[in-house]
Each structure stands twice: as structure tokens, then as C-alpha cells.
Design a protein that fits this description.
By secondary structure, the protein is mostly beta strands. Strands 2, 4, 5, 6, 9, 10 and 11 form a 7-stranded mixed beta sheet that branches. The protein has no helices and 11 strands.
Length: 122
Amino acid sequence: QVQVVESGGGLVQPGGSLRLSCAASGRIFGIRQMDWYRQAPGNQRELVALVTEGGSTNYADSVRGRFTISRDNTKNTVYLQMNSLKPEDTAVYYCKATIQTKVIPRTVSDFWGQGTQVTVSS
């Protein structure tokens, strides 16, 4: 009833940029927080950035100053602008949306996308 789909990953050289998008669709009453996570091979999934319903943002120390998260509430979409990319940014990037659905009793749940691969390499 709710789908979350990421796009925008790919291969980029060190120092380059990428913009990820994540769109939520379906029976959505409202979207609370939207987050970007990443998981590199052999590592645990880690929080990269988040944006609250009110627009407040927070970032992992490893990306602060290089990545920017933003959201377009009219499109139920969150973006992650990634600049000055480093090889250690290589990972699968996942979007998580905390959504209140239209289905009575309008519960609030977390919905994950399928992930998009980002590879930073020369």
C-alpha cells in the first residue's frame, strides 16, 4: 500500500557528485521523517542524513559539509546531494520513510526502499 523507490546511484570518480532521489507513493496520509542510510560490504547499515517533517536536518560526521538532504513535500520525495565524494562513500544507499498511512487506524510505520548502489572509484 506504500512504496518507497530510490534512484540516482551510479559510478563516479573521487571528488565528483551524485544526487539521489527517493519517492514515496501509495496510501499516504502524511510523511514524518525521511532518512538516508548506507551499507558497505561487511559493514552495518549506518544513518547518513535525516530530515524531519518540519525540515530540520542532521548528518553523520563523515558526510557533514559534503552531503545535503532536502525534501519536497508536494512530491513526497527526499533528495541527497552528495559532493566531494570519496571512495569510502561507496555503499548501497537506502531511503527510509516514516509514514502515517490512510488505512484506518492510520498507523505510523517505517518503509524502506530497495537501495541504490553508489560506487566512487577512479
